[in-house]
């Protein structure tokens, strides 16, 4: 194949640790230290990646990412851009072992070095006096061994060389080369707080220890936090964030696309850009929306859900969940509740969800409004619904529903009941009025002589007046006296209300 590009890489901390071990062995024998060379680093890293991806442990492999041709170690070094000119020589060592995890990666590298030094052929490469430069590629990933076991593993490739040609040494500082084609990067953090940023390819970034900031950049990236409180930037639906409960710290994802925490040990999620959906996990999550019409779902623990502008929908699944909507953000916001729920400030709509016990019986779920003009929708079973202040729209749906009036009647507190039904099977809806607000009436079912059908009170005993033609229910504090009637509620669907449908409490 004809090559038109070269590949370069700056060694990671793990790779530099392996170099230190190699040079300590050489120094003990009075040999010159090997220096890292960027083209050799790239060829070694590409080969380690390929072995992990292919589940193959071999000195033969593809020349460059995307190629399928078998190659030798020298082929790969030359393909990466290493200058084999004049008198030259090359060699390669390979090693792999299962990983101990983030806290043991440096120990893993030391174990690999010991195993190579205990192998005569590999030891000869490490201590060969003629070699001048080296490239080291240490990659982490799953590898399937000959036993059939698939384990998280540390894969190492060492590319040795000497040449009369031009060298591009790795002094730890990225050079300013000619533009190179993007290829996947594997970035490893340190024991402190790091800032890791990927490129436009599908990168793997591992923060390791410390409070790290990890941004994969464009592409579907794998971002691994490690111990400590980490911050992840997600901008692709294919991005994968990995956090373990063993690692500790409070971890946060800032996502410009829809994001579900899944089984990862992430605590906080902040949506930005065009993201709509934010879903939590089994931890205590804080999820913040943006200016879109968000869907925020905390999951099965006590969560805090914070909306922004737009018509937001909150799924609250656990008693203790907190929904926060600020004033003046506009929109009509909705809570879908899986338990009895009272709407918080600045949220307009409440939908009660159906929840069944393990025996298949429905849980009783009730809904309470706030000072806004609410819409409250029950589920197909028995619900208690209280609109509280405001001109609320209430719908119980199927089941024997109870509509509660526990705020003083008035022109700005008239509720609209859509489906009041007392006749059909499994119905039997009821109106409950707080006696202290309705003339001090005695508790219990309303006495028949305190109710009249029509448009106004007929005598001094009439307190509740129902006009079936208009669907309006009125309260009159003194019957046929001089006080004006107050409209309590309006009913739709040709509802019929009688004294036995009203209970005083």
Automatic annotation (TrEMBL):
Which residue ranges does the record assign to the SCP domain?
Answer: 19-143
InterPro entries annotated for this entry?
CAP_dom, CAP_sf, Hemolysin-typ_Ca-bd_CS, Hemolysn_Ca-bd, Serralysin-like_metalloprot_C
Q: Which GO terms describe its molecular function?
A: calcium ion binding
Superkingdom, taxonomy of origin:
Bacteria
> Region Disordered: which residues?
168-196
Q: Which CDD domains match?
A: CAP_bacterial (cd05379)
Protein name (Swiss-Prot/TrEMBL): Uncharacterized conserved protein YkwD, contains CAP (CSP/antigen 5/PR1) domain
């Amino acid at each position: 194949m004809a090559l038109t590009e070269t590949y370069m890489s700056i060694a990671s901390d793990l790779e530099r640790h392996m170099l230190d071990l190699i040079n300590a062995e050489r120094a003990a024998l009075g040999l010159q230290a090997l220096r890292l060379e960027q083209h050799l680093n790239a060829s070694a890293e590409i080969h380690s990646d390929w072995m992990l991806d292919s589940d193959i442990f071999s000195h033969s492999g593809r020349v460059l990412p995307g190629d399928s041709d078998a190659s030798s170690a020298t082929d790969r070094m030359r393909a990466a851009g290493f200058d084999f000119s004049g008198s030259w020589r090359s060699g390669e060592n390979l090693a792999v072992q299962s990983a101990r995890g983030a806290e043991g990666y440096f120990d893993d590298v030391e174990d690999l070095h010991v195993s190579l030094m205990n192998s005569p052929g590999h030891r000869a490469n490490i201590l060969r006096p003629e070699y001048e430069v080296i490239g080291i590629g240490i990659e982490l990933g799953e590898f399937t061994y000959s036993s059939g076991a698939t384990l998280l593993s540390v894969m190492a490739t060492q590319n040795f060389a000497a040449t009369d040609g031009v060298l591009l040494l790795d002094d730890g500082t990225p050079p300013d080369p000619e533009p190179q084609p993007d290829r996947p990067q594997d970035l490893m953090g340190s024991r402190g707080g790091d800032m890791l940023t990927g490129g436009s390819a599908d990168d793997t970034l591992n923060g390791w220890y410390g409070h790290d900031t990890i941004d994969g950049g464009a592409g579907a990236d794998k971002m691994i936090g490690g111990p400590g409180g980490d911050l992840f930037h997600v901008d692709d639906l294919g991005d994968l964030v990995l956090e373990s409960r063993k690692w500790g710290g409070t971890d946060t994802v800032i996502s410009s696309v829809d994001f579900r925490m899944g089984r990862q040990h992430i605590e906080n999620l902040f949506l930005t850009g065009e993201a709509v959906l934010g879903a939590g996990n089994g931890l205590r999550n804080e999820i913040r929306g943006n200016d879109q019409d968000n869907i925020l779902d905390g999951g099965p623990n006590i969560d805090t859900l914070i909306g922004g502008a737009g018509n937001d929908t909150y799924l609250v699944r656990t008693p203790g969940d907190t929904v926060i909507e600020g004033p003046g953000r506009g929109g009509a916001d909705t809570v879908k509740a899986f338990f009895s729920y009272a709407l918080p400030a600045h949220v307009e709509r409440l939908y009660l969800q159906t929840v069944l016990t393990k025996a298949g019986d429905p849980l009783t779920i009730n809904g309470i409004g706030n000072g806004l003009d609410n819409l409250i929708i029950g589920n197909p079973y028995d619900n208690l619904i209280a609109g509280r202040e405001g001109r609320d729209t209430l719908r119980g749906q199927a089941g024997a529903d109870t509509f509660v009036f526990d705020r003083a009647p008035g022109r700005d507190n008239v509720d609209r009941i859509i489906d009041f039904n007392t006749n059909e099977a499994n119905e039997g809806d009821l109106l409950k009025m707080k006696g202290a607000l309705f003339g001090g009436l005695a508790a219990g079912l309303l006495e028949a002589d305190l109710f009249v059908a029509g448009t106004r009170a007929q005598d001094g005993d009439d307190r509740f007046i129902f006009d079936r033609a208009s669907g309006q229910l009125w309260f009159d504090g003194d019957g046929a006296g001089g006080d004006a009637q107050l409209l309590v509620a309006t009913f739709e669907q040709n509802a019929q209300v009688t004294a036995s449908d009203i209970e005083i409490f």
